[in-house]
Each structure stands twice: as C-alpha cells, then as structure tokens.
TrEMBL record:
The active site is at E136. Fe cation binds at C93, H135, H139. Removes the formyl group from the N-terminal Met of newly synthesized proteins. Requires at least a dipeptide for an efficient rate of reaction. N-terminal L-methionine is a prerequisite for activity but the enzyme has broad specificity at other positions. CDD domains: Pep_deformylase. It comes from Paraoerskovia sediminicola. It comes from the Bacteria. Binds 1 Fe(2+) ion. This is Peptide deformylase. Keywords: Hydrolase, Iron, Metal-binding, Protein biosynthesis. It is an enzyme of class 3 (hydrolase). Its cofactor is Fe(2+). HAMAP family: Pep_deformylase (MF_00163). The lineage of its organism: Bacteria, Bacillati, Actinomycetota, Actinomycetes, Micrococcales.
Length: 165
C-alpha cells in the first residue's frame, strides 16, 4: 500500500484514548491511509493489536498481528464470546507502557466488520487472538484494559501509572 507510515503510539493520559470512535461511513483515501498505517505500525515484535485511536484517529478500525498473521477490520463489533470459558493472564497495552496486569477475558471471541472494499470480515480465535479482539474493540469504545481490572489490582495499577507520568 502506498503511503504507509509507522505512526507514533498515543499513551495515557491522551484524551483520544478515552473517546469512543466514530463509525467509518465512507472508505476514502483517508481511511485507506489509516489502514496502511495501522498495518505498518502493528507489524513489529511484541505488538498484537492496534486500534486507530492509539495513533490519534477516532475511527472504528484496528489491526492485529497474531501468529504471523497481520490483518485489519473496519467497524468491528463483537458478535460472539465464550460464555462459560474464560482466560486469565497478564495483559498489557502499547498505550499504557510497561504495565502488565492479570485481566480476565473470554477464551473465545468473534468479531465481524468490513474491509476496504466493503466486504464482510470475520475474525475469530481463542486465547491470544480472543484477547486481542476484545482489547481492541474496548479501545474503539474509549476503554482501556485497566478499566477491566479487579478493584484492588486497578488501584495498584493506577498508583504505578501515576508514578510513571
């Protein structure tokens, strides 16, 4: 894709991270450029997913980089989560650097959205992919993984975060 660029990651307390993103109603050059930047920026070691607002664009789109597969989805919505199987494990975020905390997520997730041509995109997976899909959809709703932490753990995380700022 022409015009790809590695974009700077916005970090907390940037207000764009707490703002719900707008639906993409028209695929134009701006959206094509956004997707190219999302794909380029997620394509680095240690990056599992990247939401548009993490690079300062309040549109509903994210990219992923899981098990050597890189992709993107526009206007994603979670359509299915495992209701009786969960995973616990440390979760981190590019927008909350150097902090990893145990976060409970559904073990399986399925997201539906579109691609740049208006075709349907279905992305599903378990474990890391499921965690990524849930994490990135949270971003698009203006939510950080810290918001999902148990109260006592969240208190500790916020204290550690304040010490970094």
């Amino acid at each position: 894709m022409a015009g790809m660029a590695m974009r700077e990651i916005r970090t907390i307390p940037d207000p764009v991270l707490r703002t719900p993103c707008d639906e993409i109603t028209k695929v134009d050059d701006r959206v094509r450029s956004l997707v190219a930047d999302l794909v380029e920026t997620v394509d680095h070691e240690g990056r599992a997913g990247l939401a548009a607002n993490q690079i300062g664009v309040s549109l509903r789109a994210f990219s992923w980089n899981i098990d050597d597969e890189i992709g993107y989805v526009l206007n994603p919505r979670i359509v299915e989560l495992s209701e009786d199987e969960y995973q616990d494990g440390d979760e981190g975020c590019l927008s909350v650097p150097n902090l990893w905390y145990p976060t409970t997520r559904a073990w399986y997730a399925k997201v539906v959205g579109t691609d740049l041509d208006g075709g349907t995109v279905e992305v599903e997976g378990t474990e890391l992919m499921a965690r990524c899909l849930q994490h990135e959809c949270d971003h698009l709703d203006g939510m950080l993984y810290l918001d999902r932490l148990d109260r006592s753990v969240r208190k500790k995380a916020m204290k550690e975060l304040r010490a970094q700022l």
